[in-house]
Amino acid sequence: MSSMKLMTHQYIERDTRQVRDETLVADPVINAIYSPVRENAGFLFNLLVSRQMSALLGAASYDFPFRRLSGDRGAYLAARGIDSAEVDGDPEDLDSYRKVFERHIRYWDLRPMPDQPGAVMSPADSRMLVGSFSQQVPVFVKDKFFEFPELIGPDKALWCSAFRQGDYAVCRLTPEKYHFNHSPVAGRVADIYEINGCFHSCNPGAVVKAVTPYSKNRRVVTVIDTDVPGGTRVGLVAMVEVAAMMIGRIVQCYSRVRYDTPLDVVPGMFIEKGCPKSLFRPGSSTTILIFQKGKIRFSKDIVENLNRRDVRSRFSMGFGRSLVETEVRVRSVIGRRKTKREGGKT
Prior knowledge:
This protein is α+β, with helices and mostly antiparallel strands. It is built from twelve helices and 16 strands. The longest helix has 14 residues, at 27-40. Mean pLDDT is 81; it is low at 1-6 and 52-67.
């Protein structure tokens, strides 16, 4: 049995600074898919990460009639680390796995957003890693999680040029998490497009073993221009929503007030910071934020946690250096606009 199979994956809980163990869903299955199957049975591996198989697994896990929930909903949610008090509405109405996954929460009460015009917010309840494409900054990660031009789209020369040498945040959503993405910044949508691809797992073991899976999967890229009236003024920001195994699709559903009157996200639309923007449906998934060079400074605690050597992270094992995730809450500050003194423009 390999050390990867035996190794615990840990992260740091931001609010308490405590190291937590993560129980990785379907870990033995993921390890099996991404080792001998991938190496010795290419056809089977490609089938397992295909759109058709992902849809079938998603339906079996969330939609089939025998997958209805019965009994005490509160006890079920609590057993999975979900706080029923956060649910917008009656938790007893969550009578299916899909409804639990796609639940609304009272984010306007429970995820307060600081009044800081130059702050960048977390787009999701997630476990976050930060990095940079520039070798001149401390969070440079040589062995990246993705091929940058491929992630953005190799035919998108304008955006590849704009974000070259920039910084990024990888936000990994686990299955029990609230699965709406919120806008991390305020600004006008300069572009939005979908890139077709596979449905690799976002399990850390799969990320380490697969070749740049985030830039292989199906994804939606939204480029937001924040240097407009009312914007956050941190330049261009790319929000890359990455589908994963069992994710049926990524639904664009921007709502300025709570979840009311959801709208498709289109070029030219102004989106407010902290508002719901999209929904993963369903499974585990990842959102990646990319910033232009020299525009933001990531929060000190997230950067310090990244390099902790007392935390057993599978990313550290796979990428040859300490890479530790911090668990963040949607609409919490993850960075801020650089001042002129720091080399930014205000």
